[in-house]
Write a structure and sequence with these properties.
The chain has 103 residues and is mainly alpha-helical. It has helices at 33-55, 65-83, 90-98, and strands at residues 2-4, 11-13.
Length: 103
Amino acid sequence: MTVSSSTNGFSLPTALPMPASSRGPKRRRKISRDAGHALEILGHAIEYLTDEFIYSGGSFSARDGQVEAIQLLMGLNRQIYFACPELPSLGERFRALLRPRTA
């Protein structure tokens, strides 16, 4: 199932698969200012919709519009986060320092 917006024509599946890189060890990411701002806004929107859903006594159904909206925002959140480049681990940085440089 995909959801699309009539205002911008953007569409994406309601249940986005987890990227392969998210299944391994936790890696830090270099998050740009714009991506950080987007993640912050999405986080607030997810929290707000979740609170509203819980306080209204909604039942968890995959067809519920509020649940779909929360899932959509969570998918966008993951998409933005995993688009940010991974930072090298401490071991990788250390090995890079020890690696002989050739000109």
